[in-house]
Write a structure and sequence with these properties.
Length: about 180
Amino acid sequence: MLGKLIVRRIGKKLIIGKIVEVEAYCKNDPASHAFRRRTNRNDVMFWEGGCLYVYFTYGMYFCANVVTGKEGSGEAVLIRAVEPLAGIEVMTKNRFSNLKSYNHQSLINLTNGPAKFCESFGISRKENGLDLLDSEIIIIEGETIPSKMVKRSSRIGIQQGLEKKWRFFVKDNTWVSK
DNA sequence: ACCATGATCCGCT
DNA sequence: GCGGATCATGGTT
């Protein structure tokens, strides 16, 4: 998924981001929402791959995954960061409703984390379950990232499953979260 | 019913 | 580096 473009259409406007940081989750994985059982909350994660699984967390944030497995398998890839390519103005409005002037830091701060990405793309409950091949949000081919530019580490913000190096990111990209 | 927790972010120190 | 915000979820009682 690294290097692919996530595109959101809002009316006539397009928001585009290049995916630069992701994490993988699956059913046999104590860090995963799919670990225990299929519930109303994680149901979309068990759908056939190609749709968007959005969840609400910490009482105020949303995060988005691309579902990647067969129906029932419970596999998904969390989008942790994207590089903004188009629709900066809309993203800025979504994220900082009263920001007057852009600067370097505000551009980075737009999408350098999973909940920041969702906020700038306007992704919340309504987008849960969307078909990424044919809806207002799609994923298309983008840049091919050379394998030597792909780095991996433990996943962020979890307690179990730290031995799995399932976080993947583009080396030296500015938008990769800290 | 109850309650601890969380795939986070932000502001302050 | 640390704690607070803020609440849906799900495991436990």
